Amino acid sequence: MGSLIEFRGVTKSFRSGDAAVAAVSDLDLTIERGEIFGIIGYSGAGKSTVLRLINALERPTSGAVIVDGRDLTTLRERDLRSVRAGIGMIFQQFNLFRSRTVFANIAYPLKVAGWPADKRKQRVAELLAFVGLTEKAWTYPDQLSGGQKQRVGIARALATNPAILLADEATSALDPETTADVLALLKRVNEELGVTIVVITHEMEVVRSIADRVAVLDSGRVIETGSVFEVFSNPQTPTSQRFVGTVLRNQPDSADVERLRGKHSGRIVSARIHDDGRLGAVLSDAVGRHGVRFEIVYGGISALQGRSFGSLTLELVGAPGDVDALIAELRTVTEVEEVAA
């Protein structure tokens, strides 16, 4: 595919009194052409600054931002306008003109770009059909649901055929069912129109639903990046683990461990599930090879990007030496943590 957006050692600082405060620090990041890339972090992590650097609404204090082979830090404002024309934007609060109809909202960027009236009409009709709002063309935003408003926002962002779509917390104001509909539409935008999408969010479920790869931001730095499967199945940092834990409940917390201790007298271990099935093969012969019985007392398995992952928490019952031998064999095929002896 090739890279479309690159951050090379980017720092962006703002003045706070007499001090300079870095919103992003020494940021290195590559977003490939044609992918959906998620950027996740808590409030203040620097997510929105990253978006504003991509569309050149902010200039970096140091480093380079490369968009489609052009270093934005070297361009004059006139040239930056042509870069921005190839970037669409959708917002958390929709940012529609309340005094304009749905048709006029979508037509607005086309009018600004100088499209003739007949071409504008044709393009708006295409976009209304694509987002499923043809019958709402002459409706005003206040008459629409939140999901319909965001569909209008997506249509408007696509009006001038951008190569890049930036989504800034685009589903945070929506209920779960509407969120799923909007995310499915964004997936269509990516797959059918070939638009590269950068999704800024603090919701890991959004990343799991549509992203190909994800970067985790913390205090203006990328602390982890990889495919969504890699980050979900084996998060490397405490921040990533907390995010993954909001949507996957496959490992017991301290309260769960105490409850399990009270109900089960055997040794309790958590074992990570990989896609190769070797954990199941070892457990299937646990009694025959080691004389150890097991019971699944906690855990779950998820599927993502065509692969399975998860964790099982097991009670192991048998002679201490036999249990030790089984744990040792399990550790030859997966990661095992003893949570209660």
Task: Walk me through what this model shows.
This protein has 341 residues and is of the alpha/beta class. It is 37% helix and 31% strand. The protein has 13 helices and 14 strands. The strands form 3 sheets. Strands 6-7-8-3-9-10 form a 6-stranded mixed β-sheet, sandwiched between helices. It has a 4-stranded antiparallel β-sheet with strand order 2-1-4-5. Helix 5 (146-157) packs parallel to helix 6. The radius of gyration is 25 Å and the shape is elongated.
How many H/I helical runs?
A: 13
Question: Strand share of the residues?
Answer: 25-35%
The counted number of beta strands is 14
Q: Could you report the average pLDDT, rounded to the nearest whole number?
A: 86
Structural class comes to alpha/beta
Low-confidence stretches: none
Sheet with the most strands: spatial strand order: 6-7-8-3-9-10
What is the H-and-E element order?
Answer: EEEHEEHEHHHEHEHEEHHHEHHEEHE
Q: How much helical structure, as a percent, in the residues?
A: 25-40%
* Main beta-sheet annotation: 6 strands, mixed
Morphology call: elongated
Could you give a quick summary of the protein structure above?
The protein is of the alpha/beta class and 341 residues long.
